Amino acid sequence: MTGPADEGRRGFLRLAAAAAAAAGTAPGAGAAATAPRGVPAAVAGRAASGPGFRWIEVAQLANGAPLRLPLHEVRGRRPGPTLGVTAAVHGWEILGIEVVRRLLERVGVDFAGRILAIPVANPPAFQSQSRYSPLDSQDLDHVFPGGTGGWVTPRIAHHITRELIEPADIFIDIHGGDHSCTVNYAMGSSREVALETGFPVVRVLTDVFRGAANLSGTTMGHAMSLGKRTMGFEIGAGYQADETCIETALRGVLNAMRTTGMLEGPPELPKQQWLVRNTRILRVDHGGLFLPSLPIDRLNQPVAGGTVLGRVVDPYTLEPLQTLLAPWERGVLMMHKAGIAMVEAGLWVFNVGDLATAEVHTGPHRSADQATPPA
Ligand SMILES: [Zn+2]
Fewest Cβ atoms closer than 10 Å to its Cβ: which of 146, 218, 286, 332? Predict the structure, then answer.
């Protein structure tokens, strides 16, 4: 089957071939001959302008395999700032990988500046489909800027810091929900940066982490400490609304490129955005079977205080254990659990923003479709 995505991919490959030719590399065979084993020829090789790819060697694992990070470096046709993008810092938060793939496919080399992208920032955690690395049980997002002499996870952080965060003028880290919770909101190093993402619900990073000190150790906190224009996206998971979340995040990356001159034109903003200051996370008090009360299309939508969001029942006795109610008189669902699932005590299931203390941004210049997940 062919379609728009296939057309875009072919365009990307044509641009890659053109860049290889401009660098004096024989198209096809020449690029393939220098490509690391298993690397698509289209992204192998280095050029003054165009796509490049290389592995960053981190360590050798006990089974003899190399632990390495994939670094895509794409230079645009004109000079400009450097954008750094990471995904899968938490290994099971995988939608950001697809955002990076679509970004590189969409922009080709027709931009100003340079893109540095590591689509899988935590390969051991990605391999084990978990948040943390199974090699040392550490959270990659707690150990930045990392170091060379410690466990494997801080070593990974060290290479990401040196190769991507430090050279970047703009840094974006893409996270997500878990296997059954779906999220869709963005964070920024300032109000302006948060709003320019174009997400319908945004937050300022220091509000999320309740102060700069609590950002210590995170990718975004380290980038902010270096003075970088920093964004964080929380998108998807739960196997619902994936396409909406991916496209919202892709628009966010393109908006970052527009506001910094890497792409022409103003950022695309939805008709309305909420900048949320206060949120409340709802957890499950007892393990059991979670039953949702609202469909996935309520993600990023207002929810009145007292609305039943979901229930937990005992799967053995079938007795009710907990009813989860929306906090705040007027709230907005930022994390939503819209599918039946087994839950364990303490699990996060909802995150609701307070609209009474939120800023509402609307305006006639805002024309992008509101990013509302399909029903
Ligand atoms: Zn995460």
Answer: 286
